[in-house]
Amino acid sequence: MEHVPPPAEELARLDRELAELDARRAQLLTRRAWLLAALRPPAPTAAPGWNPSAWGAPPPGRPGAPAQPWGYVPKQPSAPRSAQNVLLTLGGLLLTVAAVAFTLVSWGSMGIGGRSAVLAAVTLGALIAPAVLLRRGLAATAEALAALALVLTLLDVYAVHAVAAPDTDGLGFTAVASAVLAVLWAAYGLALGKLRLPLPAAVVLAQWPLLFWAWAAGAPTLVVGWALLATAVLDGVIALWGKGPGVRVTACVGGSAMGFSALMVGLALSTTASGPLGAAAPGALLLAAAAAALAGAWRAPKGFARTGGVVAGLAAVAAVGGVPAAALSDGWRVLAYLLCGLALTGVVRAGLPRDAARGVLAASGAVVAGALVWALPSLAAVLLGPVTLLSDVWAGSPEGFRSALGSTLPWSELAAAPVVLALVAGLLGSAHRWWPSVVRIAAPLCAREATPKPDAASAAAGTPGAAWTAQPGAGAPWYTVAGAGARRRPSGATLRGAAGAGALALGWGALLLAGVVLDVPYAVAVAGETALVGGLLAWAVRGAGSGRGASAVPVTALVGAVSGAVSLGLLSLASEGASYAVFGALTALFAGAAVRVGAEVPRAVFAVASAVWGTVLTGFAGRSLDLDPHEAAPLVLLVPALTVLLGARLRRNPVALPVELTGALGALVAVGLAVSDAPFLALVLALCGVLAAGAAVRPERRPVAGCLAAALFVLATWVRLAASEVSFPEAYTLPVTVPALVVGVARRRRDPEASSWTAYGPGLAATLLPSLAVAWTDTEWFRPLLLGVAALVITLLGARYRLQALLVLGGVVLALDGLHELAPYVAQVAGALPRWLPPALAGLLLLVVGATYEQRLRDARRLKDALGRMR
To answer: Cβ neighbours of residue 490 under 8 Å, at least 6 residues apart?
Structure first.
């Protein structure tokens, strides 16, 4: 059936496509205008001394530039300001250094009147000069002198403290001085609005009065936190209503630093409090910080509003959760913070601005994620802890669940871990169950605000992101920039499936952790985990057969069932009876799930897992019978034999191949067990060859299984011969040659046009070449004689039946074998001849060949043609 989308979805799709077309049209129009300007002929070069503008001629433009109207007079570029800025910076720096040197070095040589007069005159001049310079349009020079004036005021303060009030406390004096300087510089900056430095400098100076005052007064840490928070609030007010971007950015940076410091102070005091009353005071500080962050988020722009909401939410959780957490033990404190974090979800009904509410919800999610991060390592210890039992299989049933894990975790301090997992699992399960209600409640926070559409001029100019389109959806319409790669949010079905999957996984983990925390008996733990695996299998089978596709919940159940089965199998290794019971139950459960499930992928997974558990069971049987590993290897082949039979029953079913591959891996395990004993290894290889030959009966498996069966039989023969200390190479090569020649004969009968090299070449080479190599090192006459006779027969057969492979291989082997037999006599004759005779014979041979070269060439061509006509 053809899927017809709902009208809203189809309208959104059309709007997106139209927006993309508009953006592309704007780009093409911009490119067209540029090409038209580039194609216009350039203006003629003016003669020296000729002014085109005096005659009304248009000025020459640079190549590729848009055409200008007649009579256009280009604006002269302004002088570069980089040199001016460098000079002003260096001048201001030198004056600053001179002022510092004067204050530190020459100050003591002058009287009190001279000191005051010099500092007052210089500072007053530095403060008045920028106002005069601004009226004359020298803004950069005014900025440089304003910076000098700032440094001079700081030096004035230092001088006043060193001379007029040397006995005053340095921290208190610094607090008062920074407050006074902040007020003076703020007033100076407001009076001279064109200067960009005084107001940010005033904001920087405003960061220190309260902090230095608290330190000077010896105030406790909590008071210091309040001072930091008050400074952060002042910075927030300046960031929202300050004048100019420099002031706002400086206030934002300062407020972030001071606010973060205040939060760290409050959090440290809250977490280290000795009781609920001790945590109340830092909690008040954290609540005040949350209120300030929320108030700033109420008026801040979008990004800052979300950040403020996150800070407010986290601070509120730390404030409220810290009070009951101080009365709880270390293992239960996380639960108090988790409950407070979950309570933040009520913000959807609080009427906060959209972005601020989203930030608070993000803080709630961060608290929940932190609680899960705290609890999940203990779950990993439960799943992976039984790995330690591999070093001592069947050592005896332990007393409790914890002793079977072999973990050193402080389980008494992790008592809240299963409660945390269960609580989050319950909430996610409720959201999955009542998803429409969740969507309806959260709809106001999911809608996007509209962005105004730009004018046609900006769209035609090719501005990136200038084409906008409205896309209707649930709730209010929201707008995206066409061509800007708008993010696609996950659908409601995806989110609901994720919630259900999380609930299932966390609920399963909560039950496992509950057994460890309670330290249930070993038998109860094994039975409970077996029941959990069975439940997950039932859930996976039910979800996969519901016809809704591979949703998150059945996939999570499948993964949990497999991972839980592995952990359960490792846990059962402590006891022989438990091992048989668990792996037998797992084999039956996964086999039943493979029969009941309807989807192909889960069926294959269940069938493969069942084959693996069955293979482990056969290994247990060998251990129970006190068999050595090589003696138990034939027992392991029972499951591969069953997989071959099951594959023959399933035929072309998609599940057949994974099951048979799993059986092949089991056979490989059997081979590995038998490696230590050569006779048993030969037996196991032969049995594997029988299984492969059984699979090769099926046409779809014959190409691979047939070759594998032949290789296994040959390998089994070789291992058996090696175990019997047989050293003749023919004993190893003939078992390969004979079947290969039989296959070659069958191939030639079925396809007479097949090449003899394909049919007979591999089989003959498998015996002739190794035998020839051994014959060349053999001092006896029997092997070379038999090899020569065999090569002669093969050569004659090749000539009789016009088979190229037989003729060439037999002839080459016969020639080399005869050369080996004649080599001693040739060497004896060569030793008896004079030394000049071999070169003379070689030269004579070359002369004869050269004289009859054409004839020899024709003979070689005829020989080549004759061989080419053979098969």
So the answer is: 498
Which residues make beta-bridge pairs with 481? 468
Whether the Cβ atoms of residue 50 and residue 60 lie closer than 8 Å to each other = no
pLDDT tens-digit series, residues 130-175: 777 777 777 777 777 777 778 778 877 777 777 667 777 778 888 8
- Note the pLDDT of residue 9: 75
> Scanning the structure block, which residue is given the tokens 């902040």?
182
Helix (H, G, I), strand (E, B) or coil at 534: helix
At 478, which helix (H) or strand (E)? strand 478-481
| Confidence class for position 597, pLDDT limits 50, 70, 90 | confident
C-alpha–C-alpha distance, residues 289 and 305, integer Å? 15
Cα separation, 213 vs 382, in Å, equals 53
Quickly count: other Cβ atoms within 10 Å of residue 737's Cβ. Answer: 18
Which pLDDT value is given to residue 41? 62
Question: What's the rounded Cα separation, in Å, for the pair 761 and 618?
Answer: 43
Q: How confident is the model at residue 330 (pLDDT cuts 50, 70, 90)?
A: confident
With contact defined as beta carbons under 8 Å apart, do 558 and 538 qualify?
Answer: no
Other C-beta atoms within 10 Å of 735: how many? 18
Would you call 60 helix, strand, or coil by DSSP? Answer: coil
pLDDT in tens, 784-815: 778 778 888 888 887 777 777 788 887 888 88
Q: CA 360, CA 356: separation in Å to the nearest integer?
A: 6
Q: Are 170 and 115 in contact (CB under 8 A)?
A: no
Of residues 184 and 353, the one with the higher pLDDT is 184
The position carrying tokens 């129970």 is 624
Cα distance from N-terminal residue to C-terminal residue, the chain: 57
CB 605 within 8 A of CB 536: no
What is the reported pLDDT for 721? 83
Q: Burial, 716: exposed, middle or buried (Cβ in 10 Å; 0-12, 13-18, 19+)? A: buried
Q: Which amino acid is at 652?
A: R
Q: Which two tokens stand for residue 793?
A: 């027969």
Token pair in block for residue 310: 């996150």
CB neighbour list of residue 109: distance below 8 Å, 6 or more residues apart: none
What pLDDT does residue 655 have? 87
Supply the angle between the helices 198-205 and 170-191 in degrees, to the nearest 10.
Answer: 160
The residues pairing with 479 across neighbouring beta strands, listed in sequence order, are 470
By the 10 Å C-beta count (0-12 exposed, 13-18 middle, 19+ buried), 253 is classed as middle
Quick: pLDDT tens for 459-469: 333 333 333 33
| DSSP three-state, residue 655 | coil
Taking the C-alpha atoms of residue 239 and residue 253, their distance in angstroms, rounded to an integer, is 9
What are the phi and psi torsion angles at 470 (to 5°)? -90, 135
Local structure of 699: helix, strand or coil: coil
Give percent of the chain above pLDDT 90.
23
Strand partners, 468: 481
819: pLDDT strictly greater than 90: no
Q: Which two tokens stand for residue 712?
A: 């296994």
Distances (CA, A) of 735 to 418, 526, 764: 65, 52, 12
Question: How open is the CA angle 54-60-64, to the nearest 5 degrees?
Answer: 160
Rounded CA-CA distance 625/580 in Å is 14
Residue listed under structure tokens 């498996």: 701
Q: Where are the alpha helices (DSSP H) in 599-701?
A: 600-624, 629-636, 638-650, 656-674, 678-696
State how far the Cα of 261 lies from the Cα of 136, in Å rounded to an integer: 45
Give the Cα separation of 354 and 359 in Å (integer): 9
- 0.70 exceeded by the pTM? no
Q: What is the pLDDT of residue 529?
A: 93
Q: Give the C-alpha separation, 300 to 258, whole Å.
A: 18
Residues 6 or more apart whose Cβ sits within 8 Å of residue 800? none
Answer whether residue 348 shows pLDDT above 90. no
